[in-house]
Amino acid sequence: MKSICQLYVPSFFRSYGNNAINVITYILPKLKETGFSGIYLIGLFQDGGYDNGFDIVSYDVNSKFGTNDDLVKLINAAHEQKLEIGVDVVPNHVSDKHILAQKCLADVPGYEDALYVVSEEEAIRLTESGVPSFFGKKAYSKVNGKYVRTTFADDHQLNLNWNSISVQTYFARLFTNLKAGGIDFARIDCGMMLLEDVSKADKNNPMACMNPVYSVDAIRNVAGDMPLFFEWFDPKSAEIFNDMPNCYALDCSYVMGVPFSFENWNHPHMVPILGGHDQMTAADRGIDIDEAINEASKHEYAFLDIQTLLRHQTDPRILPGDETYDADLSNVNQRYRARREIRPVLEEFMKLDLHLPSDEITHNF
Description:
The chain is an alpha/beta fold and 365 residues long. The chain has one domain (2-89, 164-351): Glycosidases (TIM Barrel, Alpha-Beta Barrel). Helix content is 28%, strand content 18%. It has 10 helices and 16 strands. It has helices at residues 9-16, 20-34, 68-80, 99-105, 120-129, 165-180, 212-223, 289-296, 306-309, 342-351; strands at residues 2-8, 38-42, 45-47, 56-61, 84-89, 93-95, 117-118, 140-143, 146-149, 157-159, 185-188, 228-233, 247-251, 270-271, 273-274, 301-305. The longest helix has 16 residues, at 165-180.
């Protein structure tokens, strides 16, 4: 098993301020000793403060957590420990402060189609027809006098149009730069939602207008050979990846409303995920964690976090202020507030003699 440790960087900021990245570097030897094969950094980049790290302003390190030099040191230290390192890429949407959004809203030539912009009448009609929003948000929001598609958050988080050459070019350069900088893989946020056909909107089926196959193709075409782990796929959708090398689906069955079963992990491109991001931990799902980790060890990859490994996070209640830093606390999206401060968890983790099960898989990314 190649076990990937999920590390939500804002949690480290909450405990350690702008030493967050340096603390992650410090714990790398212990992660390697425990049996992890890699780390995945969540919420690393500069964001607008409205979606806990997912309304991306730019793919530069958030200065709250440390510097670009700190990240370079972390990447080099991870590779010295033979640990792979991955980051989030959010191709579905960006902050209204992102350069693509800013250029589109300003009608800069070549960027007019970077966002989905419609008339007010069309925004009303499409919303009434069932074009979906998520987490109680608006399908279309008025931003700088334009009506823009907003699947997530609000008018601060705008959908990118993947039919746009400017969008494709931006992400092709991003993946080239990530790889050149030593990043080994990426988790793709909302990767099944890049391209949609709003004419197929159905009030009873929020996913009706989404086109997962073309969406995955779109991001795969600009990502080169970098391994991609896609969020928001249920087990029935994993077949999309059958003929796609280096493409995997993270098991988000719980989020997608599919009853959890270890059988969900049987597809060769479906990766077990235990804790972290917006999935509940194994304990929250009523799953025996020892059994879950042992079952995950039978697979090529598994994602898990330290809290789950230590049997923490058994209380799924939402508590205001948990694992947030400058997020809009009036935002109904409270997915990340159920986690706890990372300092006591790390103190416990560093003292324990833990070893993850492994079947000695030697495949490299």
